[in-house]
Specification:
By secondary structure, this protein is mainly beta. The protein has 4 helices and 36 strands. The protein has a 5-stranded mixed beta sheet, with no helix packed on it. Strands 13-19-18-15-16 form a 5-stranded mixed beta sheet, with no helix packed on it. The chain is elongated, with a radius of gyration of 47 Å.
Length: about 475
């Protein structure tokens, strides 16, 4: 019984609410029914605002221009509404002719025309939510560089009719010569046009910065008669490249042209009559005042090379000695200098930086008494040089070694198994058989004498034997 009573009571309340929410509207008012942002109740000619309502949607629901509706109710711009606020609905006029489908166009500027950084933009639209219009400008990277926010104007725009817009677009920081204009309303893109960004002087693009750099060829690089020059500059600039020799004579010129983005590239061809390994000075300039320079070398079709000028070949060296030389086509680079024993063992290694002319100069210290060689190489170009020397780590050459002419000294190996070494400070390489052997040099190392036993096999290094392990006969001392 109690359950039946509750059901009846709920039914009665529902009928009362339904009747109150659907009370008859006043004559002459057209109600198109609930729609987004206009879902409040209408009683007679009074509409009650609910949360989320907008002036545009209320006007559209009742076929009344939004400005007329606000004026009729004495509500000033910016037309703010509050939930629960009563709005009187005037007699509706005839509804607008419906659009076949919503649209928004850009009629000015026309496609592919030239524009500056500030230009008028206009068009028309129909059936747009609240008549909102967004015109966005994208540069060649797709980055937004300008935007216009406006609304359609027209007597029936507020109720979905057709209208027009007219405003001014200003772009800033555009990269590239193209601008794409997008017509958007309520996050829907309806149309787009592409135009050219014009610097006002008849050329496409705006070079507004002096930023400029060259990153190919590198500083001090060797270049042939024709080579690529690449770099980075300010946006939309024209780059002109000129090559000159040390006396200022022009050797070639090239134009990178107008580009999109920031990188540029061109081919520079040099005139004839340039001596190999001559310095070439490259200068790049832009129409925005940018200047960049690069110093390179003309290779003349030749390969880079190295020459050791000190020490001279076969020179006996002090413990600390100087290594000097010069390279052709090296430029400013790093060289590897090595002291190597005759058996190929690495004794010492250092690096040295050449000057722009390719010259190098360093000191080395080798604490060994052994014949060997000095090698210098450029890992960047592959250039290589070598000179034979005698390392004498222990004092002056006259006190620490002496060359022994053939037959001046003979060594008697008293027993089989006497060890022979790669050098006085190196590993044992073989054993000697008993008998007489020639020697070509005597060296004092580590407080004792060592003798060099020549090895006449092809590409084989000489051996060393301790003076205490053999019996020397003849003029064998220091």
């Amino acid at each position: 019984m109690r359950k039946s009573f509750l059901i009846t009571l709920l039914a009665v309340l529902w009928l009362v609410l339904a009747a109150s929410s659907s009370s008859a509207q006043s004559p002459g008012i057209v109600d198109n029914g609930w729609m987004p942002h206009a879902q409040g109740p209408l009683n007679g000619d009074i509409y009650t605002v609910i949360w989320g309502d907008t002036v545009f949607s209320i006007s559209r629901r009742f076929n009344v221009d939004q400005y007329t509706l606000m004026s009729y109710n004495g509500i000033p711009s910016p037309y703010r509404l509050l939930a629960g606020q009563p709005i009187r609905i005037p007699t509706s006029g005839p509804g607008p002719q419906p659009c076949p489908s919503p649209f928004l166009t850009i009629t000015n500027p026309p496609p592919n025309t030239n524009v500056g950084t500030s230009f008028p933009v206009s068009g028309s639209g129909c059936g747009l939510f609240e008549g909102n219009v967004f015109i966005r400008a994208l540069d060649s990277r797709g980055v937004q560089v300008g935007q216009v926010v406006t609304t359609l104007s027209g007597p029936t725009v507020g109720i979905g009719g057709q209208g027009t817009y007219n405003d001014t677009m200003t772009v800033s920081g555009a990269q590239g010569q193209l601008l794409t204009l997008l017509a958007i309303s309520n996050n829907v893109e309806y149309s787009r046009v592409t135009v050219n960004l014009n610097d006002g002087g008849g050329g496409i693009g705006q070079c507004q910065s002096s930023a400029l750099s060259i990153f190919e060829p590198g500083e001090g690089a060797n270049v042939p008669a024709s080579f690529t020059v690449r770099g980075d500059a300010a946006f939309n600039c024209t780059v002109t490249i000129t090559a000159r020799d040390g006396g200022g004579r022009q050797l070639g010129t090239a134009n990178a042209g107008t580009f999109q983005g920031t990188q540029w590239s061109t081919t520079l061809a040099l005139q004839g009559g340039i001596a190999p390994w001559s310095d070439i000075f490259i200068e790049a300039r832009t129409n925005g005042g940018g200047v960049a320079q690069r110093r390179v070398r003309f290779d003349g079709g030749q390969q880079p090379s190295l020459t050791i000028t000190e020490p001279a070949p076969n020179t006996p060296l002090q413990t600390t000695f100087r290594v000097r030389g010069v390279g052709a086509g090296l430029g400013n680079t790093t060289l590897i200098v090595q002291a190597i024993s005759n058996n190929g063992g690495l004794i010492q290694e250092q690096s040295v930086q050449t000057d722009f002319q390719g010259a190098f100069d360093l000191q080395m210290t080798v604490n060994q008494n052994t014949p060997g060689r000095i090698e210098v190489r450029s890992q960047a170009t592959g250039a290589f040089a070598s000179v034979p020397v005698t390392f004498n780590g222990g004092g002056s050459p006259s006190n620490n070694f002496r060359d022994l002419p053939n037959g001046q000294c003979q060594l008697n190996v008293p027993v089989n198994g006497v060890p022979a070494f790669a050098n006085p400070d190196g590993p044992q390489v073989r054993t000697l058989s008993a008998g007489w052997l020639p020697t070509v040099r005597v060296v004092r190392f580590g407080g004792q004498l060592w003798y060099v036993i020549p090895n006449y096999s092809a590409n084989a290094a000489d051996d060393w034997v301790r003076g205490g392990d053999v019996q020397a006969s003849g003029s064998c001392g220091l």
